[in-house]
Request: fold
Amino acid sequence: MGSFNKQGFISSLPICSGDAATLIFLKPNKYCDSKQGGVVYSTDWYEPVFLPVFGEYDDYGRIENIKRTDSVKFIEDYFGLDIKSIIDEVDDNGVGRHGGTITCTKNEELYEKLTFALEHTSVYEKMASRKRLYYTEGYVVEYFLNKFGFFKIEDNSDTRYKNTWIHTDLPGYEYHSDGQWGHLVDSNGKKVDYIYHVDDMERELLKLNPNFKSNLTDEDRNICSVDLSIECTKLAIQKNEDEKTDDIKLERMRMLWGIEKYQGVPNITEYSSRLLLDGRSYSHDSSGQPTELLKTVNGKEIGDMIRFNWSISDLSSKYQPSNYGSQDESIMLHYEMLKCYREVIKNKLIDRLDYMDQDEVDEYEEIFAEIKADDRADVIDLVLG
Reply:
């Protein structure tokens, strides 16, 4: 078979020789044969296995010039093979080149099920850059109470919100917490309303005391929820290992319920229950934790893959092996379709303005103003003309 293009499994754009490409290993979902009526989740056909591998498309269905990331080393150790051999054989098995001979030395059961998808690295990076800020979406947990300068005192008598926190700059006020959710109360026990997230708390503290000094940094205000979760899961794993005991009952409970949350922040499994990042399945309520992965792979690689997965779900896309593309594929047709998509998206944004609250209206009006001000389609037409 001669040279050929592949298609990005999300973008459907042609991947040509030398293009920076991202490879994601997949395995068939065990329920995929019963999905004749359609799929719901992005992983209903195929499930992603491991973190991505980055390289350049070699014009024959694979990637070359592979970057030596932590994730690549993890995959090599997992199967006992170098990454090029893994990619070559998985591709050969997928197209039936040599009868599917399995040569790996470890975890053969998973190895023989593998296939892979390709996408433009620029598309992967864009999708992986979408953050959900903990500052505006997460609870006021111990991690941030410490940042604000609160300190914990003895438990109160509340049946749920037993943890009591006070602050020297806020006499007469206490913060009562159940470890995750909580509320600020005054000396009469009256709850201060509308404190749900960290940004709400910071605004309220400054309102109560204009001289209040917040210890939050710009990094704290811009940290992605998943990045905070990765760091806190590492701390929880370390705490679990430091507290190893000969108490069989306690260890059995830990095996059953998993590693406890660190300071109220969700474990990483709550963001990755449908991703086999370390080669095996686990869910937010299982005892499984990607412990070795967190010890050997840097947090950015893990966080980027989870953010990429968020984007796939938000786009209602699906994990699937990459299709083959013609080398005669019309880039001009892709361009014409891009203009069509752009017009559809613009109209959808206009339609949504009618039933949004004011904050959303302000956000979308700004986006719509940007779209209207961007005459990019006309400019490209002019350039191409």
